Every structure is written in structure tokens, then in C-alpha cells.
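Exam revision sheet. Question 4 asks you to relate a sequence to its structure. Input first:
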Amino acid sequence: MIILLSNDDGVYAQGLLALRDALEDLATVYIVAPDREKSAVSHAVTLHRPLRVEKIRDLVFAVDGTPTDCVILGVNKLLKKCPHLVISGINQGGNMGDDVTYSGTVSVAMEGTILGIPSIAVSLVVREHRNYENAAIFAKKLVEWIQTTPLPPNTLLNVNVPDMEKYEAIKGVAWTRQGKRIYTDSIDELVDPRGKKYYWIGGVPLKDVENDDDTDIGAVSKGFISITPIHLDLTDYRALDKFRSMERKITL
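Answer key, C-alpha cells:
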């Protein structure tokens, strides 16, 4: 079995190395990851400049591009054979609710899915413990499960693990839907040493957003590992049926 690992935290990230260590006895594990942090770049592909690849050591490559670039290069150029599985993470911080639209971590799994490879995104909802080993233990169990339970076509698994001191403190596994996470619009207007204005976009999640227990955010807040199946077809079929059936048509 061949597994391709990537992330958006960079090739030396603690979560990525914990994931590799957990999976090495199951498969030949390649790492193709950004050479630096690339958080919140979503599914960006580098088209306006050439990409550089550095071989760190056997089976480990750093790319001066986006997480999506890493998957494209890994699958098409750097690996000797097509991987059986693409896994992203372990991300430093959760990717829940609306986070998935910004996440480089989830986009690694999206690109793997587009290429026809079963793919998983794994994130640790970091608190005080930063226990990546717990998430790595579960990722290994999930890989073993996937070997006998194929994923549906065009579907990836988005996994979020609560940050517990001990693995035994995790309450269980919940299959969830995507929740809702709203961020404040924080934009700082500053002035550089030459007197020119610049802007810094930030923002933190609002604390008063409510999510039911069957959502990713709700499940993790209760101490459960959340697994959300994400389908790449973004069509709203209910809206499509509604618009098609409307008497008032859009005409040329």
C-alpha cells in the first residue's frame, strides 16, 4: 500500500510527522508538503510561476507551492506509483463548518478525490494538550477501516479530533454534517515605514454560534471525533428542482 501525505502547515509540522510515524507500519508513506505554512489558501493552484521541489530525504519532498500543488506534483511526478490513499494533516486546528471552504488541509483531500484517489483530511481541534498522537492513532484505525470499506465516488472524509490529554478520554466517533462557523470581520489598517497604508485581514470565530450535536462543531465540543463526508458536487439539487419547476421562467 502506498500513502501520500500532505498538509498546509509545512513539511516539518508536528502533526504531519506524527501521522507519518503512525502509518509507516501499514504502508510505504510519502510526504509531499509545502516548504512553509500555507494555511487558508483553499484549493489554489500555482500557475503564474515555476515550482521548486527539494528532496529532504527518501520519500520526503518540500514544494514551494500550495497544498494542491503538492498533490498534483506528488501523484503525477514525484511518486513512482499512484498512491492508494491521500491523507492531509494532522492540521494544527480544526477544520469545521465554513472552514472547509478556506482550508488548505481539506483541499489536499479534494485534489486527491478529483484525481480518483480515496482521500482523508485530519485536523486536531487544538486546545492546551496539542496531542497529535491521539489524532494519529485514530487516523491509522480509519485507514484500516477504509481498506475494507471503500469510500463513495467523489467523496472525501473530513475528520476533526478533539484535543484530549489521553486517547481514552475521547467519547467516541460521530458521523456528522457540516456545521456553521461565523467569523468576525477584522481588518487592521496600518502604515508602513514609508508612510503607505496596508491592511491585515484577521478575525476569530464568534463564541455564540450554536450547532446541533449532529454537526462537526457540536460533536467535537462534546468530546467526539467528527467524520463528515464531503461530496465534490456542490449543486444544490433542491434549489435546482425548485427553479426548474417555477412558472416564471428566465428568458433571453
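Marking note for examiners. The mean pLDDT is 94.
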